[in-house]
Amino acid sequence: AAVTSDVLVTGMTCSHCVSSVTEELSAIDGVEGVSVDLNAGGASRVTIRSSTPIAPAAVEAAVEEAGYALASSP
Ligand code: 9UX
């Protein structure tokens, strides 16, 4: 069964930000889907669906590669 995990990402303010983060996270092995609840000016909730649990460090690296930062893991 697929698993989902949520992270909070800061610095995202437009749909292109969403595209960048989605693209980077989707490139992680095992990731099947990414959805973003954009909260411009605050932390955006990013939900990652994957076949197996994804290492938190891989998620953080992808978010940073896209140019944003992890606020926390709720
Ligand atoms: Mo939109 Mo996001 O012009 O860093 S790409 S603000």
From TrEMBL:
The keyword Secreted does not apply. Keywords: Metal-binding. It comes from the Bacteria. Residues 3-71 form the HMA domain. The keyword Lipid metabolism does not apply. This is Cation transporter. It comes from Microbacterium dauci. The chain holds residues 35 to 108 of 109 of the full protein.
